[in-house]
């Protein structure tokens, strides 16, 4: 049923209630996970006292500068004004995830970006556009659609398999460090798996060696 009137025509209307930024709306989700069937409160104080604070908050730079701020602000309000939370700070530790950088190719004259499939390296090692031969500027930047430097995980899995892709993602870099994604890393992981398989076969079937 309509809950208000349209101020322009005086007719019945529904009031819009979804007016906050999504980061604000999602700033207390961790509380709801603790008590999802509670129809009277976000979560009971007993659940909050038993399980808070969150051990570790994992997020990127956008979480550090926006969502984390909102979540801490709301937790402070729920603690100080409503007494729902046992403490003001909801998270014990924040782990900022490093950026994944992609190889980026750009025209120095027009600023146009080129995907990897449209560039080539000449005999001197210079990166050029295949279509025009123009020398391109090569950098490593945050992967994005606009810079045409993204890598589709499905393509990596199709070429190297799921386990090799997982090892590549976890190897060589801590979760907080920025990393340059290159095909060479996947090949190194694949070589490791191949060596492991050979060693396993040798140990299990020494008579075949």
UniProtKB/TrEMBL annotation:
Molecular function in Gene Ontology: ATP binding; leucine-tRNA ligase activity
Domain of life the protein comes from: Eukaryota
Family: Belongs to the class-I aminoacyl-tRNA synthetase family.
Protein name: leucine--tRNA ligase
Alphabetic keyword roster: Aminoacyl-tRNA synthetase, ATP-binding, Ligase, Nucleotide-binding, Protein biosynthesis
Cellular component terms (Gene Ontology): mitochondrion
Keyword Calcium: no
